[in-house]
Design brief:
- The protein contains twelve helices and four strands.
- By secondary structure, it is mainly alpha-helical.
- The strands form two sheets. The chain has a two-stranded antiparallel sheet with strand order 1-4. A two-stranded antiparallel ribbon has the order 2-3.
- Helix 2 runs antiparallel to helix 8 and helix 6 packs antiparallel against helix 12.
- The longest helix is centred in the middle third of the chain and has 29 residues.
- The chain is globular and about 60 Å long.
- The termini are far apart.
């Protein structure tokens, strides 16, 4: 129950970012606001990272980790939030919230393309359903809605790439990678925004943007990680998938945006498609090679077979560990331990 509450709070905090960002765009350009939101996210991660440092959690310094983190910063930290805010400036926050379901689709399709992970019939039907719902929302907003949908789709593609790149970073915790992403991407976008447009925002708007970034992008991530530790990644993601719908509801309730039959139809189609996508898993015999890395794990998942005397197998913890070669079969996602190709 505690993990479920954490996941719901994480989704609520992230969902609130869309309608609040819509209001903040009256004070900032998209580059300025994107920079402030991600600097706020970095600030929100500082306490988490300090706690990790006190616990002695190591960082594995690999060149591949640094390259993947740099690419994640570019795709998910610099480009994606700016594209989202340009789209948000053109159409209703409720529509943009619903369109954010495209991130899950982008992540799934990139997994199929980059890692040859089969989606299955239900998965591809879900992709078609989400795209069709996005087309409904885009068409209902006229040409501004179409351009907004393209901007949001570009943002979701950037976050999808970010998701895969971050999942491959096995020596840096999510909190540390978020801190680095927020600090670097936030500073870059803010610098571009200040150079391109005059700074006219009041101190109150500046503080609000930083707080939204800290809560909706920083604390939300920390809560999601904690929820995934207790619920498992699949159930935590299923709960977090409610965020776009909560964001739309908040937009209609607090911004006074009209809830049209088109929004209702798109939301129903999106909900059915997301549910199908979350159920899309597969099982087959597969082999794991020898591997050494650092990440959060537990010992009842069939992959972490090393022993800790006195530690219950269900306890989640993090340390450097080695995997011996292993062959088995079970239902799985394209996660950190299942980046194999399929013929």
């Amino acid at each position: 129950m505690h993990g479920l509450l954490l996941a719901l709070l994480s989704a609520l905090l992230f969902a609130a970012s869309t309608p609040v960002s819509k209001a903040l765009l009256a004070s900032f350009s998209p580059f300025q606001l994107a920079g402030l939101l991600y600097l706020g996210a970095a600030l929100g991660m500082v306490p988490v990272v300090l706690r990790e440092r006190r616990s002695g959690l190591p960082i594995v310094a690999r060149r591949t980790n640094a390259l993947r983190l740099a690419a994640a910063v570019l795709c998910g930290g610099v480009l994606a939030p700016v594209l989202l805010l340009f789209g948000l400036r053109l159409t209703l926050a409720g529509s943009v919230s619903l369109l954010l379901n495209l991130e899950m689709v982008a992540t799934a399709v990139l997994g199929a393309v980059l890692f040859r992970e089969p989606l299955g019939r239900a998965g591809w039907a879900a992709v078609v359903g989400v795209v069709a719902a996005g087309a409904l929302l885009a068409g209902g907003g006229g040409w501004p809605g179409v351009f907004a949908a393209l901007f949001v789709a570009g943002a979701c593609l950037g976050w999808g790439l970010d998701n895969h790149l971050t999942a491959l970073i096995d020596g840096i915790t999510p909190a540390r990678s978020t801190l680095a992403k927020g600090a670097v991407a936030g500073a870059a976008n803010l610098a571009i925004g200040v150079a391109a447009d005059p700074w006219t925002a009041a101190p109150g708007a500046l503080g609000a943007a930083l707080v939204v970034g800290a809560l909706s992008y920083g604390v939300s991530i920390a809560l999601y990680i904690a929820a995934a530790h207790q619920l498992g990644a699949t159930r935590a993601q299923a709960v977090f998938a409610s965020a776009p719908f909560v964001g739309a509801a908040l937009s209609f309730a607090f911004l006074g945006e009209p809830l049209t039959p088109l929004h209702a139809a798109a939301a129903l189609l999106l909900a059915a498609s997301v549910a199908a996508l979350l159920r899309s898993r597969h099982a087959h015999p597969h082999a794991h090679g020898e591997l050494e890395h650092v990440h959060s794990h537990r010992h009842d998942d069939g992959h972490h077979l090393h022993e800790h005397p006195g530690l219950p197998r269900s306890t989640r913890h993090s340390h450097a560990h080695r995997h011996e070669p292993l062959a088995h079969a079970h239902p799985h996602w394209p996660d950190l331990h299942h980046r194999h190709e399929h013929g």
